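[09:14] KT: can someone run the structure on this one? pasting the chain below
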Amino acid sequence: MLTAIIDYESGNLHSAQKAFERMAQEMNAGDVVVTSDAEVVARADRLVLPGDGAFPACRDALKASAVYEAMVEAVQIKARPFMGICVGMQLMALRGFEYTQTEGLGWVDGEVIKITPNDATLKVPHMGWNDLVIDTTHPVLNGVSNGDHVYFVHSYHMKMHRADHRLAHVEYGGDITAIVGCDTMIGLQFHPEKSADIGLRMIGNFLTWTP
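[09:31] RB: done, structure tokens below
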């Protein structure tokens, strides 16, 4: 079993790599590699797409990367399990509206818009720990409960068009989508590698998930 964390020069991947390697060892779930090699992505058993920064820049960098076509084929044709993290999750949307309208991958039915809390005392970016509210059960959420804390750093969030594509949310002056998913894909707006035991549990569940 091979899990490929896709490197398209969008953020520091060290902490994610360490968390996935730790859980792969604990769960006897094979090897984890950080790669920008299309051949490695093509033969990987599951894929992870991280992302830090602005939606348009990440989208452009991903589309220009050597791994883009291999990733799309692996997820859309070969149905390999896929996890998007932070902006990697946002890129799963139909489009984003950060700075300019930018087309996303179109894998989940939602749009990425700026967080606008209805409480003026709440700051943007939404940064820090928040309590999950589970909307839909999913194997990657086994052992995760309402009220479990995860760690966020973001100014934009995904507004869903289909309720069944949202698996969990948090409250931050209104609903903020926290987890999306459909078919063999799941996306986490928060950073599981920075979310202590709950984040590691979700990583472990993903590494052993058979859709």
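[09:33] KT: thanks! The domain at 2-207 is CATH 3.40.50.880 (Rossmann fold).
[09:34] RB: yep, looked fine to me
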